[in-house]
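Look over this record before class:
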Amino acid sequence: MTIATERPPSPATTDRRRRGRAAKGTLRHSTRTKLIVITGLVAFTVYSVAPVWWLIVAATKSQGDLYTTNGLWFAEFRLWDNVRGLFTYQDGIFLTWMWNTLLYGLTGTAGMSLVCVACGYGLAMYRFRGRGVMMGVVIGSFLVPGALLTIPSFLLYTDLHMIDTPWAIIVPNFFSAFSVYLAKVYAEGAIPPELLEAARIDGAGEYRIFFSIGARLMSTGAATIFLLGFVGSWNSFFGPLVYLRDQYKWPVMLGLYSWLKVKVDTSTDLTGLVVVGSIISLIPMVALMISMRRYWRSGVTLGSLK
């Protein structure tokens, strides 16, 4: 009597089966992951674009169509009339607000970028007593709410005669604990200490090393700090509301808010002008973002090597 026995599969066959099962599982996992990621990206895109789309559509409508037509689609095109009304209302005070915001943003953010990049460079590249304590103070300042410093800042600016002056907005923008921390972390990864030692051996001073080597190697990080600071300064509202009294010194966000209050205080409705003003106020930030793309495209050390 002969008993038939099944021959065990060869190792090559076993490997092929295992790879086939692994490939199927990877394919299913990859498809599921891609679906989740794409769904999340679509939801984030809609969440981000929908308010801007509404703003663009609303800017083209008349005051009546703004309340009586579909908010997500166009009606009678009145964009140029709205822009003309925006620039002529109150003798063109909107242009004054835009200039103030541009002045506060560029001046304060340029000073902040220089101060914070230098501080971050020093904390990253130098070893000195109290360095850890200083870094702990910088990180600990993140926990202090900005509103908590309003009264002490107001009293200090009053003693310095800075209330209702542009300096009350520009000078506080020079200092940002988060930007110092960001510059410090970026400097640690972007600047080789050996390069600085070589420059010292060649006889370069510390200021020359910073401006010729450190600042160039940190150009991408400095651009990021400048962009974040400019956006924060451009959208600032609470500080100007507390420290500025003269409406001709207001930034654009505070000015547009004052137009919204007109509807509450009087029977005049300036919502259409606020919508158009919001669109116009986005243009400088978009232009700045486009003009600074090259800092993220180029390599971190490209400027120093050149």
User: Anything to note?
Assistant: Residues 219 and 292 are 11 Å apart (CA to CA).
